[in-house]
Amino acid sequence: MARANRVRELWQAGQPALNGWCGLPSSFSAEVMAHAGWDSLVVDMQHGIIDYQVMVTMLQAISTTATVPLVRVPWNDPAHIQKALDAGAYGIVCPMINNRAEAEKFVGSCRYAPLGYRSSGPIRASLYGGADYHAKANDIVIAFGMIETQEALDNLDEIMSVKGLDAIYVGPSDLSISLGYAPGGDKPDEWMMAALKKIVDAAKRHHVQPGIHCGAPAYAKKMIEMGFTFVTVGGDTAFLRAGAAAAVAEMKNAPKPGASSSPY
């Protein structure tokens, strides 16, 4: 029997999924993160310092726990998407989905025929997922399309009506830039709240799960209250940066440094 996707189970139960972020190229840091108790972890191959082989070892480390392994690919490229799935990713976060055609290309990469054009070769996925992985993969793998631009906001209904798109994932920093503001996340501004409400409302209309990248738990809780069902709260790099800076500042009786400009 194929291994279930815990994130899907949470959604079916009407509960949000708590996600962590891995940008450090280390199987050990991924293992440490997985043992912290996240529902899922994203291995970031877009902005993380991670190559394919290291990604595979990180997925292996995550699989020492019940945490669901997800991968953010560098771009909407079937080669990246399908290799990550063959390595055992149970979901793909795909950057910059701006219109229906891009959403269709992305979803097709994630699904075996007749639902898509994913090539058959689940070399590690069948070890992680089980002997009947191929038969169940279309129902297991989660396709997250990232909403990060004004164009995407203008095309929400077209994007979210694509059959097989399970979820969207808001990239607040790129969305801020596209809307004419400075990069960064966890913004309480009215313009951001209006954009996020528009996204959540569209997701509800199309029965798509809305996700978002957050930095602080307090902001993530507000996003859940708004209707988001998948929230990322920080990541390995941010936790390392904050913990180290706080310890040094305390030892030197110095003020803690300001927040990093990176959302990761």
Quick structural overview:
This protein has 13 helices and eight strands.
Could you describe the 3D structure shown?
- This protein is an alpha/beta fold and 264 residues long.
- It has a single domain, classed as TIM Barrel, CATH 3.20.20.60.
- Helix content is 45%, strand content 15%.
- It contains 13 helices and 8 strands.
- The chain has helices at 6-12, 27-34, 52-62, 78-86, 100-110, 125-129, 133-140, 150-154, 156-160, 172-178, 190-206, 217-226, 236-251, and strands at residues 17-22, 40-44, 68-72, 91-94, 142-147, 167-170, 209-214, 230-233.
- It has an 8-stranded parallel β-barrel, surrounded by 8 helices.
- β1, α2 (27-34) and β2 (40-44) form a beta-alpha-beta unit.
- α2 runs parallel beside α3 (52-62) and α4 runs parallel beside α5 (100-110).
- It starts with 5 loop residues before the first helix and ends in a 13-residue tail after the last helix.
